[in-house]
Design a protein that fits this description.
The chain is of the alpha+beta class and 418 residues long. It is built from 4 helices and 22 strands. Helix 2 packs antiparallel against helix 3.
Length: 418
């Protein structure tokens, strides 16, 4: 049965005990939900991992390349002195007599042999003069023959008393005079033959024509150069060195030469005594041991090795990492047994350690250093940024040796780590 109350009357009050019981019921329901969720998670955990959870596996050792860097007693500094290649002989041939050039038989760049004909003069005048002298000699020969016959007759008549001694002497000395005249004509013919020979210009030695300055039809004076010939068979190398260093060189001393990038050997031919006022250097003449195909004027270098007795290690340029206080860092490898790395050879696993070094001498792709490296150092070949001290690494490809570098210096400064 419902109790009817009029509008405006206050609603009936709920007893205080009912409110309390409703709150208790709500809290109990919440606790039941939390308990159920926790139980479900535990069940799920049990279903997903029937045993204890395994800890994560340790990372595999990093694959690296290693290089053996044993202790060396010292290193060698290669000093380079610059000079240039000079032809052994350079000539500017010309005619000893003047005349008109009839032919030039060579051009720029031609290779000529010793005695090869280079040019000729117009020799028509000389040929005519020679013909005249030959005719003159014939006339003298005829006169001489007559004089000899006359002298023979005079001698017989004088012996018979039919001729005077004066006439006999005149006939006899006429023969002598005509013989001398014949000799004079022969000398004139020989002079013309020499002039004809000198009208042909020949190469004084084997070489190459580098400049032709005269063409056909040009009238030249005696001694005017027609061309330039450079001997290319045995060039010399002239090197400028300090006077103090030149004093240490002896004739025939063996040296190394850098000729257009090719390394050759040679011997010191001479040390010139004059000192250049401009450069304060002395010129050393070096002759290569073997023929070299280097043009005259090419820049050349003389390489001289100077040993330095300071112990250290050769290390690759790629093995250096920037260090502190002007030093560099090299990572050494110390044998270490891996914890548990399936498929990894225990003998190939190492642990990385840091060593501080100082660069003493740089070369093209390696540097000579000294520092805290052990005598039989095994170092990381490259990629020092990939590792940290204490990291385990695996050497692949075997242990290599530091390759010999060239003579060119690398641009490495000892203070680059500052």
């Amino acid at each position: 049965m419902f109790t009817h109350h009029q509008s405006g009357d206050p609603p009936p009050k709920t007893p205080p005990g009912g409110i309390r019981w409703r709150r208790i019921a709500g809290v109990a329901a919440t606790l039941l939900v939390i308990a159920a969720a926790a139980g479900g998670g535990a069940v799920a955990l049990k279903a997903g991992a029937p045993g204890e959870a395994a800890e994560p596996d340790a990372p595999a050792p990093l694959a690296v390349t290693a290089i053996a860097a044993p202790l060396e007693p010292g290193y060698t500094i290669t000093r380079r002195f610059t000079g240039r290649v000079v032809a052994g002989r350079i000539a500017e041939p010309g005619f000893e007599t003047g005349g008109r050039v009839a032919a030039v038989l060579v051009d720029d760049g031609d290779r000529v042999a010793t005695g090869a004909v280079l040019a000729r003069l117009d020799t028509r005048t000389l040929a005519a003069e020679r013909d005249r002298l030959v005719a003159e000699r014939g006339r003298v020969e005829a006169r001489l023959a007559l004089a000899e016959a006359t002298a023979a007759r005079r001698a017989r008549l004088t012996a018979a008393g039919h001729s005077s001694d004066q006439a006999n002497d005149e006939a006899r000395f006429e023969v002598v005079a005509l013989a001398a005249e014949r000799t004079s004509v022969d000398a004139a013919i020989a002079a013309v033959d020499v002039a004809l020979d000198k009208s042909v210009l020949r190469a004084p030695f084997s070489g190459r024509v580098t400049a032709r300055t005269v063409d056909e039809g040009t009238v030249v004076t005696a001694g005017r150069p027609l061309m330039q010939i450079v001997e290319d068979a045995a060039p010399e190398v002239r090197i400028a060195v300090p006077a103090a260093f030149a004093a240490t060189l002896s004739p025939d001393a063996a040296v190394r030469l850098d000729l257009a990038g090719e390394i050759a050997t040679g011997a010191v031919a001479a040390v010139l005594p004059d000192l250049s006022r401009a450069t304060r250097t002395v010129t050393v003449v070096v002759r290569p041991d073997a023929p070299v195909a280097v043009p005259s004027g090419e820049i050349a270098g003389m390489l001289v090795d100077r040993p330095v007795d300071t112990a250290g290690h050769w290390v690759p340029l790629d093995a250096l990492a920037e260090g502190a206080r002007g030093l560099w860092t090299v990572y050494t490898l110390r044998p270490a047994t891996p914890d548990a790395a399936p498929g990894v050879d225990a003998a190939a696993v190492y642990r990385v350690e840091r060593a501080l070094v100082e660069v003493l001498h740089p070369e093209a792709d390696r540097v000579f250093v000294r520092g805290t490296l052990p005598a039989d150092a095994l170092i990381l070949a490259d990629g020092p940024h990939r590792v940290v001290p204490g990291q385990r690494v695996r050497v692949v490809g075997g242990v290599q040796a530091v390759a010999d570098a060239g003579v060119a210096g690398a641009d490495i400064r000892a203070g680059a780590g500052r």
